[in-house]
């Protein structure tokens, strides 16, 4: 278990460095991440490499048991490199090159940039690959962040054409599969295809108003750009692995940015690493990103490379709130409870310089340790105590939610009820609903093993391959319970609509056909009644509404307007299992009731610790016993009720019946059986 | 009477085509529009023309009595053409070329593009001009739509300079008439003039903040661009007319876009065609666009080339609601009641491919006929029954509203109380107010004949030529009743302010002078009292407020603040007629009362069918009798009260006293005299 | 005292000119500003100069005692100049040249432009420098307005690099002082540095999303651009002063735009001139811009070159309201009461032409004098009466607020609680709070003399030089009372954070150290209690919250949450004086109570005229007596209560006890002692 901070020795005077290292050592943390923006210190002139400045720090820390994560510094190509090769600069969708002066101003496909990146990586691998004080490597920094993941420079454009050629083999295939006949967009040659000017990149320069491009080309460009970034990343992975046995990863930006398919990008990495900046002031820390992270490599522990540390200023804009006293500790333990193996605060000490000057950190710019520092110290202490439980307990979830980047991208390209519906938020809503009714779930990709789960949830499987159709049918026919929701199996992997009735190719599985679809806006809600098992709910459709065919076995019907008595939820026995199709969304409270009922009916474990919505419970198994990690996110002390007998893992006390948890408090309780 | 759909045989496999054609035939519609985006199928390589793929479909449909509207495909120049002549690409106001990859990526003034457009049009005219199964031709598709009507490429810039030269003859005239002395903008030569970077084009790239250009040059550029688009269109008109006797038109985007002066653009066309996408879910379908359409060619029937068909997805964004059951039928009949001769749904079957994939259509992507299809079928049946009445009844309106593109453009260039005041919405408000009090009105251009109307309404005649002043005076002096409203005769045709007191040159006509003007914002409303005939209303000024001179004969005075007792509405006998000047706007209810009073006092026919605001009544004359088309746009059944005796044209039943109309229902009733 | 209008004889026909001049003369005003956009009339072709058209007007007016302010016309380089030297065009942050067609389309650093500007200025100076009818000169027009103050053309880029070189001497210094090590931004040579793409310029083309540049380079670019504009301005100042003894100034855009440091830019000018367009309809005219203006040259009278005149249309957008009857007169007298020496309405007569056509003016486009004209005439009459008092009375304020452009720019570059906190608004709030409790204050720069004031207020001294630290300590140690507020002494003059504890280097002065900082958003307010002298207030923190060290002498503590009992306001005796540090903002009412208490305790004069918040009182000293200028900004008549005896300076009546002032009325009262 790694706990620590980011640190930037290259910014410091000798005296500051000594001061900081002393504080770091006294804090009890065991990991420091360094080097990710220091290219110009590593290589101040072309071919002239310097590591001594960092070696000293690593050794100094290492002698006291503090390990270093070494980063390759390729997020910040220095001035001399830009000057020599101005074509390495990133080009935005309006053809403007991002200038030297910020960060991430490079094209990941540019050959010169790749050459220089490979060289600095080679040198770093060579130099640090076997250093006993090093714990692992981070490649680059937040790839694609800040709108740098959809370069359209000539290199990228040309490479994209080749990518298409590689996928479609010949132009006739491209024309046919992409539906290029629409608007006479058929090409005689791949050379006639442009990268789209409208991408999902948030940082892209103003998109062209009302300029609608081919959705197949658009999805392909998202994939191509993601693939290119992965290829760039893995050039470094490969080099580092020549020199080291330590884990190699990068810091993803999680489900916040999503310009890269992390399921693909993490394949050659040793673990999934990501950055997470939740608020820590009177708010629950959302654990969906952790579930997502845990699912990337099928349950392997993940690394949090950067984590929120404090209040004050911010990169731009309005500043950050300070954490509540206790919130930082609580959040760190929560992270480990959900499967983290590393958790590093960004960052140790506030920068006085540069674009991130005055931002949040553990220690203020003046270097005086204050409450955040002391809380980090206490946290390190607690972590040492709970390490055995964390490291040796495993997740035993019976429900999984599966999600997919093709669907995410396709829904950004062709939105559904924009801006009310955001795919990952919808998945998050299902995850949280389960959690709040006492069911921990996993979040996995379409590629992972479904059979270990009793219930599989497929939220809006918009883009669905023929293989995935078969996989779902297999899963259910062997006894699985599947919940699919509206707009499932609408498009094929080319982002082209299926011409079969919806859910296309899955009517046998779900026992229903979609007769009519429409978005749900403010003025066209309909009431509906869900009848399933013991559960009878009257609720209201949201986001999107589908009418299911009369031949369906209905678990939900509309109650109002011309949809009255039409189906909205269908249920179908299929092989040994059961498949539900849910043709709309509804409010969280009703979704919780519905999901709880399904879980109960199917023998899913529901934990016995009832708190309230703002008390999160993570259940894991440790040496054959249930261990519960319980977090109070209420803004005041709360009371939980335990059924059965538990042991408080930290105090060793026995817990029975009612038990109080402080504001920002937590409890680690082992079932006493 | 033509009723049908758009269809895209070029997208289809043979099996799909057979399936669709069978459904089309079974539906009872009689018209299909085809070909508007199929340039690459018509001419897959330069000079290689293919029509056989379409001929078969036309013949197949035609044999069963279904006519085809053939479109020229110039909205989508294919890849080979763009590759050979990249200078045909549209250039936006920031100098960026619109790339191949969407549609309408062309400059309408570019010589190469015009040459290729002429050739494909020639071939189409030659091939289909005499085809017995063809009913007419559509040129291009939605000219200027999606921000493609204000190209500033070198060709356009040069042509604009010549346009100015042609208008102003010499640079001294230009300097003088455009007020170029302001900000030292006088030019020594036309070559020094740039197209403005700020245009009214909604799709234009971000306009330069706080960069204020000469309003004369700006209005001239709007006119020049409109003229250029018309010139481009009429190159095709001329060619097609060499080969065909069938009607030739295009599909305008109506008062939604307004980058083209449709009064000018329709002159050489056989009728006005336009596209209309109203909501059909629990909402009244606005008939102002129909009145506008009917007025384009002085009462001639118009064609609706594309009309709303269903719900689901959309070109971009949030999706579309499904029509209420019955709403589609109701809307189609309403359209014919208002003067349509053709009404084609966009489109027959949902696209699985391309930028418009998954959009609304009559039949879903899976090709299964459902309620919208069956409703279209019923509608076709009804239309066959009412065709004699529709085709042989005429409009006999006594009130007209006149509107003008120069005023519209001038008000976009120099807005008045932006964003509360939108000229066409203001005209629409007057139209609807009249309709709701039982008075059908016409909407006409400044160029049309005023003398056939008892009452003429001139809403904000902002840009007013000297000729129009005379026309208005003539109209009133011969007995007409004129209602002019605030900001009338403010500017001359060069978009330069008149230096006479307002309403400039019309004080004799209106018997008043404007003493003071200002916008009306949230905090400076004043109450006012209208006293005219039997009508006494206390209301509140809106949008804009003018104080009229004390020597006016007042029909309305302010009641409050420093404007107390000052005039706001003036009335003046002029020759045999009467002119009203209304120096502000007011709420719709009070506007209705005021207009009803004026209509009553002047013997305007007010229909005897009273419903409520959401029941629309269209009165026409058929064989000497009044025939009423009545539409219930309430969200429930409604009851109307008829005075006198009527015959229900569809059932033949006699109607007297109270009568119920279903939700989304309609009634066609003939006065039984 | 100068009172008058802007006028544009170059727009007029001979008849219009005669008409206008007659009205101007009859109005009683004594000043007209002319020529600021007339370059092409002064020099219609290169090297061909014409002044006769203006000479006639100047002489005609001058013969009747009306003086002219002559403007250099460099805001509008004519077409022939742009055509010959297209490189003079302004380049925005995306590299787009602003075209000819608006105004201010020039680069102030361009050599060709400077040459032509110098020549036309030379000719104007030569021609008008000694003209007896001229009262002064205005250089250019609203420098930097409308987004024209941050040009990044090659000339500017190169010059910026030289500016940096000049400041930092060598690249090592630059790298070190700018913190360029952050994100590997160290340069090997100044040639590698770019002007930032993100500036504070409002008119800049869309800034690059999430592209964060070095804050030192950003602040330096703001200074460089301001310096460049000043340099451009002073090329003209120097030329004009060769030829004239009359005052030379320009028209700043005041604290509205702030792209130029007016403390620097006014140094070589004879007075500070600025444009001011407050609303005049049922609203108080904010006098903070006047206090700011008076402070620019340490109390010297200022000129208002353009002032609001009427309602109707506007440069773009929504139009302007008319002034209340009386509001124009009231506003003009208020301006003189606050230290104006000149006040010119923009403008005499509404333009029918150009980008500003139909905008507000004293006389409408039709040339008919109406109420605004007659009110101007009455105002001129009043001004003649009060001139002796205005010209001979002085300000005797004991409190000053000091502000600074470095802090303003630094807070735009790295905002604090954006968009709630705007530095100048915060300064304004303090100024108004003082005014509303009866204390007139001065607004001065950091460079001015502090010792003449009993109380000095330093609102958020964010960027604070070492010299300023010393100055503050000297001020207090010699007996001054200092109020510093949150985020003081955070950054050095390189826009780099201090590494000392906050307020950096001033803990001895304020007797406190900042322990923790954070913004205050909607959900993290805390209550706090202020105890200072007789004043005990319970209030709520706003905008930003700091926790002060426990060793402080506290005048305010938090009451709630984890901040309970922590300090927020500290008080410290330092030498002979006292320093307060206020670690948050609070609502205006509580700020008023707090400030009033401090003023009372320190013997500050508080005037005896109590009205209400919307009655403004300006106190000056005239011949040893207090004279009060009192303005009623309520929307109705108000009653004031005077203690003691006063004489109404206009009527000569004695005032005692209660006294009524009309809506939009004013009173000039001399203390009768």
TrEMBL record, chains A, B, C:
Q: Where does Zn(2+) bind?
A: 107, 151, 153, 156
Catalysed transformations (reactions): Hydrolysis of terminal non-reducing beta-D-galactose residues in beta-D-galactosides
Q: Pfam families annotated for this entry?
A: Glyco_hydro_42, Glyco_hydro_42C, Glyco_hydro_42M
One Gene Ontology molecular-function label: beta-galactosidase activity
Positions of the Glycoside hydrolase family 42 N-terminal domain: 7-385
List the keywords (alphabetical): Glycosidase, Hydrolase, Metal-binding, Zinc
Gene3D superfamilies reported in the protein's UniProt record: 3.40.50.880, Glycosidases, Golgi alpha-mannosidase II
Q: Which GO terms describe its biological process?
A: galactose metabolic process
Decide whether keyword Zinc is in the record: yes
For the ligand (substrate), the binding residues are 103, 141
InterPro entries hit by this protein = Beta_galactosidase_C (IPR013739), Beta_galactosidase_Trimer (IPR013738), Class_I_gatase-like (IPR029062), GH (IPR017853), Glyco_hydro_42 (IPR003476), Glyco_hydro_42_N (IPR013529), Glyco_hydro_b (IPR013780)
> Which residue stretches, if any, does this entry annotate as coiled coil?
none
SUPFAM superfamilies, A to Z: (Trans)glycosidases, Class I glutamine amidotransferase-like
- Please give the GO cellular component terms listed in this UniProt entry: beta-galactosidase complex
For the Beta-galactosidase C-terminal domain, which residue ranges apply? 614-668
Does this UniProt record's set of keywords contain Hydrolase? yes
Q: Which family does it belong to?
A: Belongs to the glycosyl hydrolase 42 family.
| Annotated protein name in UniProt | Beta-galactosidase
Q: Which organism is it from?
A: Blautia liquoris
Q: What is the lineage of its organism?
A: Bacteria, Bacillati, Bacillota, Clostridia, Lachnospirales
């Amino acid at each position: 278990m790694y706990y620590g901070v980011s640190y930037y020795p290259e910014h410091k005077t000798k005296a500051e460095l000594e001061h900081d290292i002393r504080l770091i050592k006294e804090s009890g943390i065991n990991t420091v991440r360094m080097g990710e923006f220091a290219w110009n210190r590593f290589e101040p002139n072309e071919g002239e490499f310097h590591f001594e400045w960092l070696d000293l720090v690593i050794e100094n820390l290492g002698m006291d048991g503090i390990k270093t994560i070494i980063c390759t510094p390729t997020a910040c190509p220095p001035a001399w490199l830009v000057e020599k090769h101005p074509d390495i600069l990133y080009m935005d969708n309006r053809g403007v090159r991002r200038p030297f002066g910020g960060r991430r101003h490079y094209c990941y496909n540019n050959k010169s940039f790749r050459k220089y990146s490979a060289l600095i990586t080679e040198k770093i691998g060579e130099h640090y690959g076997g250093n006993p004080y090093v714990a692992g490597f981070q490649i680059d920094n937040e790839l694609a962040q800040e709108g740098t993941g959809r370069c359209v420079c000539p290199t990228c454009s040309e490479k994209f054409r080749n990518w298409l050629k590689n996928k479609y083999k010949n132009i006739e295939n491209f024309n046919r599969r992409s539906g290029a006949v629409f608007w006479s967009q058929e090409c005689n040659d791949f050379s006639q295809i442009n990268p789209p000017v409208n991408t999902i990149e948030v940082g892209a320069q103003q998109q062209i108003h009302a300029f609608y491009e081919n959705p197949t080309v658009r999805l392909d460009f998202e994939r191509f750009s993601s693939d290119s970034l992965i290829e760039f990343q893995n050039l470094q992975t490969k080099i580092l692995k020549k020199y080291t046995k330590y884990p190699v990863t990068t810091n993803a930006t999680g489900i916040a940015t999503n310009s890269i398919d992390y399921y693909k990008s993490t394949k050659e990495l040793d673990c999934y690493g990501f950055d997470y900046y939740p608020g820590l002031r009177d708010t629950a820390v959302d654990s969906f990103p952790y579930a997502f992270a845990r699912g990337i490599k099928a349950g392997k522990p993940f690394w949090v490379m950067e984590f929120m540390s404090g209040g004050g200023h911010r990169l731009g804009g309005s500043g950050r709130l300070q954490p509540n006293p206790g919130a930082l500790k609580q959040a760190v333990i929560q992270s480990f409870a959900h499967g983290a193996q590393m958790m590093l605060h960004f960052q140790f000490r506030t920068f006085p310089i540069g674009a991130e000057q005055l931002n949040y950190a553990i220690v203020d710019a003046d270097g005086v340790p204050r409450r955040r520092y002391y809380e980090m110290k206490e946290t390190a202490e607690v972590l040492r105590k709970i390490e055995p439980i964390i490291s040796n307990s495993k997740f035993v979830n019976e429900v999984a939610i599966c999600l997919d980047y093709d669907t995410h991208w396709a829904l950004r390209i062709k939105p559904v009820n924009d801006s009310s519906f955001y795919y990952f938020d919808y998945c998050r809503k299902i995850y949280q609903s389960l959690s709040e009714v006492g069911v921990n779930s996993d979040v996995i990709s379409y590629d992972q093993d479904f059979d270990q789960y009793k219930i599989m949830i497929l939220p809006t499987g918009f883009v669905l391959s023929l293989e995935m159709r078969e996989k779902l049918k297999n899963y259910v026919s062997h006894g699985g319970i599947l919940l699919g929701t509206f707009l499932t199996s609408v498009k094929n992997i080319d982002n082209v609509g299926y011409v079969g009735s919806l859910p296309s190719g899955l009517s046998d599985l779900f026992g229903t056909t979609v007769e009519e679809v429409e978005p749900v806006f403010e003025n066209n809600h309909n009431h509906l009644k869900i009848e399933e098992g013991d559960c009878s709910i009257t609720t209201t459709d949201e986001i999107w509404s589908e009418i299911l065919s009369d031949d369906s076995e209905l678990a939900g019907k509309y109650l109002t307007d011309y949809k009255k008595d039409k189906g909205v939820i269908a249920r179908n026995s299929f092989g040994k299992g059961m498949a539900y199709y849910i043709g709309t969304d509804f409010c969280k409270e009703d979704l919780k009731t519905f999901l709880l009922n399904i879980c109960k009916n199917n023998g899913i474990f529901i934990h016995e610790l009832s708190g309230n919505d703002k008390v999160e419970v993570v259940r894991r198994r440790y040496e054959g016993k249930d261990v519960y990690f319980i977090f109070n996110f209420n803004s005041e002390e709360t009371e939980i009720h335990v059924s059965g007998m538990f042991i408080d893992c930290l105090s060793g006390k026995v817990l029975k019946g009612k038990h109080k948890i402080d504001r920002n408090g937590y409890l680690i309780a082992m079932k006493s059986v």
